[in-house]
Design brief:
Putative xylanase fold, alpha+beta, Lipoprotein, putative xylanase like fold, about 280 residues, 8-stranded antiparallel sheet, disordered N terminus, 13 strands, globular, AmiA-like, Papain-like_cys_pep_sf
C-alpha cells in the first residue's frame, strides 16, 4: 500500500446516496515514484469541527469500537444532507474532498470510519483516503463505489456478518454497475459479479436486533439490477430503542437524523450488515 503525505490548507471552498456519490471540491494529486501527495483545502468550519472531534476521540480512547462510532457519528446529527458530494469521473480528475458542512450517506460513513482511527489531522486525511479508495489511490476507478466494497475489496474495512445475524437470509448474485438493459450506472467502471446476502424486512425481528451491535454499518438492500444498496447508516442502540443514524435525503429530514430502526427497515426490501474491524 502506498504511503500518502498530505498538506492541509485552510481556505473557504464551495462544496443521494447512489453509486459514486460522495466527493466535494478539494484536491490536487501529484504522483512521485514512491508516494502520492494530496493537496487539500479544508474550510475553517470543517477544520474546527475536525479538531474538536479529534480531541473527543483522544479523551475517550478507551471505549469500544461501537461506542466510538456512536460518539463520533452523534456529533454529526443535524448536519445538512447534500447529495453528490464526491467529484470525479472516468474523464474528470478525481478530487479528494473533506467537508463537514454537508453529508450524503456514504461520505458520512467515510468520515466516521476515518475519525475513529485517527489521532491527528494528517492521520485523519490519510484514513479518509484509505477508507474511500482501494490502495489509497485517489482515482475514480479506485473509489469504493458500493457499500459491500467495504467487506469485499482488499484491505477490508468491515466484515459482512449478515448471514451470522439471521438464518433467514436471501443470497443473490449481483452484477454491480450493470443495469437491466446492459448499460452501466458509472461508465468506465467495470462490472463486478458479487454474491450478496440480505435479510428481508419481514424477518427483521427482536432476535435479529439482539444480535446487532451499536456501530454496525447498515445497508438498505435494493432489488434493482446492478446495485447492492440504496442507502446506508449506522445501527445505534439508544435509551429509546434502536435507530438508524443516517444522512437522510427525505424531504421531512434533509439532515443527519436518528430514524426508528424497525419503522425504517419495515418499508424496505431488507438489510445488509457490516461490522467494523477493530
Amino acid at each position: 500500500m502506498r504511503r500518502v503525505s498530505q498538506l492541509i490548507l485552510i481556505s473557504s471552498i464551495s462544496v443521494g446516496c447512489a453509486p459514486g456519490s460522495g466527493v466535494d471540491e478539494v484536491a490536487q494529486n501529484d504522483e512521485t515514484e514512491s508516494h502520492q501527495k494530496a493537496k487539500i483545502n479544508i474550510d475553517p468550519r470543517t477544520l474546527k469541527k475536525l479538531n474538536i472531534l479529534l480531541e473527543e476521540r483522544s479523551l475517550n480512547a478507551g471505549i469500544s469500537t461501537g461506542q466510538m462510532i456512536d460518539l463520533l457519528s452523534g456529533a454529526f446529527l443535524e448536519t445538512p444532507y447534500r447529495a453528490n458530494m464526491l467529484q470525479g469521473a472516468v474523464n474528470t480528475p478525481e478530487k479528494l474532498v473533506i467537508d463537514f458542512r454537508g453529508l450524503d450517506c456514504f461520505t458520512y460513513l467515510d468520515y466516521v470510519e476515518a475519525l475513529r482511527k485517527s489521532t491527528s489531522q494528517t492521520e485523519f486525511v490519510e484514513n479518509v483516503i484509505q477508507t474511500r479508495y482501494v490502495d489509497g489511490d485517489i482515482n475514480f476507478l479506485y473509489r469504493k463505489h458500493f457499500f459491500t466494497d467495504w467487506a469485499h475489496r482488499e484491505h477490508k474495512l468491515a466484515d459482512d456478518i449478515t448471514a451470522l445475524v439471521s438464518p433467514d437470509i436471501v443470497r443473490v448474485e449481483k452484477y454491480l454497475n450493470k443495469k437491466v438493459d446492459g448499460e452501466t450506472y458509472l461508465p468506465g467502471l467495470p462490472v463486478v459479479e458479487r454474491s450478496i446476502n440480505y435479510i428481508p424486512s419481514e424477518f427483521i425481528n427482536d432476535k435479529v436486533i439482539s444480535r446487532l451491535q451499536t456501530g454496525d454499518f447498515i445497508g438498505i438492500y435494493t432489488k434493482l439490477a446492478g446495485l447492492d444498496v440504496t442507502h446506508v447508516g449506522f445501527f445505534i442502540m439508544t435509551d429509546n430503542g434502536p435507530v438508524l443514524r443516517n444522512a437522510s435525503s427525505r424531504k421531512e429530514n434533509e439532515k443527519v437524523v436518528d430514524s426508528p430502526f424497525m419503522d425504517y427497515v419495515a418499508k424496505t426490501p431488507g438489510i445488509i450488515i457490516l461490522r467494523a474491524k477493530q
